[in-house]
Amino acid sequence: MIKSKMLSRVLVTTAVAVSLVGTLNAAPKEKKYIIATASTGGTYYPVGVGIATIASLKLAKKYKMTFSAMTSAGSGENVDMIDKGEVNFAILQGLFGSMAWQGKAKYDGKPRKNLRSVSMLWQNVEQFTVYNKYAKTGNIMDLKNLYGEKFSIGGRNSGSRVSAETIMKALGIDYNKMDLQYLGYTPSSTALQDGKIVGMNTPSGPPTSAVTNAFATIGASKLKVLEFNSDNLKQIQKSWPVWTPYTIKAGTYPGQKADIHTIAQPNLLVVTKDTPVQTVYLLTKTIYENLPFLHSVHKATKAMSLQKAIDGLPMPLHPGAAKYYKEQGIKIPARLIAN
Asked: Would you place residue 28 in the very low, low, confident or very high pLDDT band (cuts 50, 70, 90)?
């Protein structure tokens, strides 16, 4: 059950979903599930809203299940809210999910073994956007030029901050020498447009609205999304082999004339292990039977497919999700089978 102090943060998914839920007249057996996302300027939020909307539309009448999306500070807060029973599902970065499950880094000695995977969703693409004057080479190592400057690394309790710190540590970039600002995606974009910061970190599925708005307002000639080369990637993978090469195609952002060569990690939908098997089974089935709807919600979800559903998952599948995948003929490796 959602705590009262959290109710103001639970967002209605769409007017259609509201109308549908309203017709149920608060049936006694109705089950309400909350999906934690991130800030509104990234990809987690619109995709979370899309999943909640289609699940409510398909499952409310027959199964008395409704879903809604909640904004949050991102992966870190999402794990905390699951621990406290404030949400049932959450979208997490692959890196953050791996840390939480294994009990490493922030979760050193305290693994979150109550988590279960539902599906890989799309890739979280690293997008370090800075003013051109600081992009001397255009490579990620240009972040060293931001020492002493204001840089938004992400929310204090966000996966964005953790991934940025992890990447910079691996590359020998001392982020403590920057004047760090802990802003969500939309506030970061606004601050960049207002000249209050010189760069921002917004890992997400392109096109990311925070980056789109910055390019549209400031102009592509004045901004640069820093790139990663193969040596950068190898250095990062020594510590956390969850990233792979990714190309942001030309034209993804206003005025972007050339491809951007960066890196990406998987995002995943997770759930608590005690969530009913039927609930997770029906949600997983609904997601994959309605991918065209999710594609219309955000282009990042076009990367989703049954063939990629279990790729890169850092923790075992919930039995409900595993049941659906087995029905679809997907072979599940032993490491993803929950004990």
From this structure: low
Q: Quick: pLDDT tens for 95-140.
A: 989 999 999 988 999 999 999 999 999 888 999 999 999 999 999 9
**DSSP bridge pairs for 124:** 265
- Answer yes or no: pTM beyond 0.70: yes
Quickly count: other Cβ atoms within 10 Å of residue 234's Cβ: 10
Give the C-alpha separation, 177 to 149, whole Å.
8
The CB density around residue 186, as the number of other CB atoms within 10 Å, is: 17
d(CA 229, CA 128): 14
What's the whole-number mean pLDDT along residues 241-256?
Answer: 94
Please give the backbone phi and psi of residue 202, each rounded to the nearest 5 degrees, phi first. Answer: -135, 70
Alpha carbon distance 11, 263 (integer Å): 31
Verify that 255 and 132 share a domain, yes or no.
Answer: yes
Rounded to the nearest angstrom, the gap between the alpha carbon of residue 307 and the centroid of all alpha carbons in its chain is 20
Instruction: Measure CA of the first residue to CA of the last residue in the chain; give whole Å.
Output: 26
Q: What are phi and psi of 15, to 5 degrees?
A: -60, -35
CATH number of the structural domain spanning residue 330: 3.40.190.10
